[in-house]
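Slide 14.
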Amino acid sequence: MTRPGRPAGPASDTEAVVLTAALDLLLTEGAAALSAQRLHTATGVSRSTVYRHWPTPHAVLAALIEVAPRPAPSHTGEVRTDLHAEVDALCDRLRDKPVGGFLHAIVAAAAWDSAMADLRRRYVEDLLAPFRTALAPAGLTGAAREDAVSAIVSPLLLDALLLDRPAARERAHRTVDAVLDTPHCLFGAPRWGVRPPELA
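Slide 15: predicted structure.
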């Protein structure tokens, strides 16, 4: 039971110390290193404090996802332009160690601990969200929107996670253009990013 006047969560400086160390351990040793004992050893924060707030590797990963920076989209409302910008941003994030390394680690963790699968999905959903937002002006919803996002993003994740190579940025830009120029019968909306002649 929490004593009166004592915050339920860890102090912000303790949280910063533990989660900074946790991210480093995750990127260098994998999710299995995120035990209370290992975090205590790495930080000097008492094992009981670590265990009270982050009792399992799952809890540590959930906390890391919660505090992960989410770049604010600066969309123009022009679907094609905004999707190209999101492709560039995702390629940069997949190339950089915190995001690319975190994604590798959480996918590996989900392979040995089924409880991690929900965190993997949550993290990937965060990566997909800006693409959904960029598509909003096109009026796409449901399956049509998800098909479009998958067509653009899936090859980038395949490159980064399974083929261990840089995400193919130029190919992704071509995919954006191909998706936006796909007839409405496939995606449920008229040629996104292209204004009808009578409205031009």
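Speaker note: The CA atoms of residues 94 and 100 lie 4 Å apart.
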